[in-house]
Amino acid sequence: MKILAITAQSWVKKLSIRVESVWYAEYSRSRVMQIFNAIKNKCESFSIAMKKAWKAHKIEFQMQVFVSKFQFIKSDGSLRIASGTQETSKIPENKLPKFGSVDNPDIIKFFDTDIQEWRSFNASTLI
């Protein structure tokens, strides 16, 4: 009976891990396609737009947990090296995000940890 219980527990654990990974894979594809559809006309080719969409998604995902470093081209044409996060525990209380803002799929919002302000960039300008 004890062996059966251990096997059932390990099976449930494997099943829950599998369900979480399937959910993340579906979410990732969906989010990447949202970004891709928003930036495909701003990029030189389909493959470049897809690479930038995946990169933007990875940076977005990292920023939900860590402070992430990335580069993008600002609207004035200069290169910007940024370190940012979206994790609320790393953001001062008076700078926490306000809910109810309209999301644009190609705009990535982040809290810049160097200057302690909210910033954003277009996913098509990632390097």
How would you describe what is shown here?
This protein has 127 residues and is an alpha+beta fold. The chain has one domain (2-125). It has helices spanning 2-39, 46-63; strands spanning 68-73, 79-85, 107-112, 117-122. Strands 1-2-3-4 form a 4-stranded antiparallel β-sheet, with helices on one face. Helix 1 (2-39) packs across helix 2 (46-63). The longest helix has 38 residues, at 2-39. InterPro entries: WYL_prot. It holds the Pfam family WYL_2.
Describe the structure using short key phrases.
127 residues; 44% helix
Tell me the major beta sheet: 4 strands, antiparallel
Rg, nearest Å: 19 Å
| Annotation field: number of helices | 2
Poorly predicted sequence stretches spanning 5 or more consecutive residues = 1-8
The percentage of residues in β strands lies in: 15-25%
Q: Which whole number gives the mean pLDDT?
A: 82
Number of strand elements: 4
Backbone structural class: alpha+beta
Strand order of the largest sheet: 1-2-3-4
> Distance N terminus to C terminus?
57 Å
Shape by Cα distribution: globular
Pfam families: WYL_2 (PF10902)
